[in-house]
Automatic annotation (TrEMBL):
Protein family: Belongs to the ABC transporter superfamily.
GO cellular component, one term: membrane
One Pfam family per UniProt: ABC_tran
Transmembrane portions of the chain: none
InterPro entries (alphabetical): AAA+_ATPase (IPR003593), ABC_transporter-like_ATP-bd (IPR003439), ABC_transpr_TagH-like (IPR015860), Bact_Polysacc_Export_ATP-bd (IPR050683), P-loop_NTPase (IPR027417)
Listed name of the protein: Vitamin B12 import ATP-binding protein BtuD
Amino acid sequence: MANSLKEKTSLAGAQPEVVIDPAREPIVVVDGLHIVYRVYGAGSKGSAASALMRIVKRQNRPQMKEVHAVKGVSFVAYRGDAIGVVGTNGSGKSTLLAAIAGLLPPARGGVYTDGQPSLLGVNAALMKDLTGSRNIILGCLAMGLTQEETKAKYDEIVKFADLKPGFIDYPMSTYSSGMGARLRFAIAAARTHDVMLIDEALATGDAKFKRRSKAKIDELRQDAGAVFLVAHNLDVIEETCNRVIWLDDGRMKMDGDPEEVLAAYTKATGK
């Protein structure tokens, strides 16, 4: 779980790698963050079936490989920021968001937040066997809304998700990926978040949905803390964010104005 900013400021003798602007209100501090995955079974020779048989027969132990996904990343996000995170596949974008959300423990360094981060991903878990309607209720209650607040938000969520007629009463297993993504975003955006982390949730929406999502993110920036957005669609990043972080092989490549960072990223990657 991410530590609080109060804990950060109380660390005796700490030598932070980041400098906080005293004129602004910090809401997330990422300080020399390293995230390391341990992958078991990596490097085994032969097929997956033969590797499994060796494990079952205890002929040898599965090999372990360390994957250094985030390497010494440091930055400060301030209240009101909408920060886009770009990078090629495997650059550490989703790992960074998961670490800010408190879902991955740092190997070194730390993440400090003022409030509770909420991670919204395209694969965010809703119950596929339940209807969209039931998932709205369960999702809102899981976010801490009362039954009365959930009832008050229900019609707004349904309208925002813009599902095909009647689909709100169908199981989510019948939804397309775009419909599921829209409903997840609509549920998550129904409450004010201290820090909202969006991982590719806008990638499957049409132009109309992206415009509504941008307006909702602008609203969240005004009413809450900060928004982080990972998306391969650079137009979405440029239109939505006031700042962009570029990750390359787990390291911070650039952090700054969207137009400048995206131009450099596009030139380097040809995307």
